[in-house]
Design brief:
Blueprint (H helix, E strand, L loop, with lengths): L17 E4 L3 E6 L6 E4 L3 E13 L3 H10 L5 E12 L5 E7 L4 E4 L4 E5 L3 E6 L13 E6 L2 E7 L4 E3 L6 E3 L4 E5 L3 E6 L15 E6 L4 E3 L14
Antiparallel strand pairs: 1-2, 2-5, 3-5, 3-8, 4-5, 6-11, 7-10, 7-14, 8-11, 9-10, 12-17, 13-16, 14-17, 15-16
Length: about 230
């Protein structure tokens, strides 16, 4: 068989602990003695070497919080030696490295994989609690030093609120730096014009040093439903 036509899709040497293969696959290099990786259950599409997979329990309190908020995180632990490839139904993959003192707040459904040594918990986002229906806005918060891979529906844009205050349609919001100050902004009743929702238009506001990840599609879970 002539493999020249598919040679462009072949493997390359890993450049870092986590690296992208194309824009829809995350490749993680796992070595003995290094932290394991926690990944979304079912996201593994291939692996090479000797990798052990196990369910990851999040504890009774976290399960209760998860049930209340709807952020049902089902994770698996990956350890051993080799390379693991993760993907999530063809979604785009964005990879970042957190340094000590940095944190990331991300929609739990957009988590693909992260280093097991990172601190992680479901947390209510301050500044927007009273503005949204239900129990407020809950996200997965990651902090420490390590790698994170998230997914987006389409190629995302990364905004820098340190240059000027930034406003985002909540249904397109994926993740942001925990160093940012978060709030909300109401517009006139132009829900059919500003954003995709009905009724009163509302955006999540950000300012400070950090970044915001925005995807070019709305979150189908409607977890940000606004009372209009």
């Amino acid at each position: 068989m002539d493999q020249q036509l598919i040679a462009a899709y072949g493997q390359t040497a890993p450049q870092a602990r986590m690296s992208a293969h194309g824009n829809k696959i995350c490749r993680v290099n796992i070595q003995p003695g290094a932290p394991g990786v926690l990944a979304k259950q079912g996201a593994m599409i291939a692996y090479e070497g000797y990798i052990r997979f196990a369910g990851y329990g999040q504890g009774a309190q976290r399960r209760v919080t998860s049930g209340i908020t709807g952020e049902r995180m089902q994770l698996m632990s990956c350890t051993g030696q080799g390379d693991v490839y993760f993907a999530d139904y063809g979604a785009d993959v964005a990879i970042m490295q957190l340094n000590p003192g940095e944190g990331l707040s991300v929609n739990a459904s957009n988590i693909l994989a992260f280093d097991e040594n990172l601190e992680h918990r479901i947390k209510m986002v301050s500044g927007v609690t009273a503005k949204f229906s239900g129990n407020g806005l809950f996200n997965m918060e990651l902090s420490g030093q390590g790698w994170v891979a998230i997914t987006t529906r389409g190629t995302p844009v990364v905004l820098n609120p340190s240059e000027r205050e930034t406003y985002v349609d909540p249904d397109a919001l994926v993740a942001w730096s925990t160093s940012l100050k978060v709030g909300t902004k109401r517009s006139m009743r132009l829900g059919g014009i500003v954003g995709r929702g009905s009724g009163e238009a509302m955006q999540v506001s950000f300012k400070g040093n950090g970044f915001v990840v925005v995807q070019p599609a709305e979150d189908a879970t409607d977890r940000f439903h606004v009372r209009g």
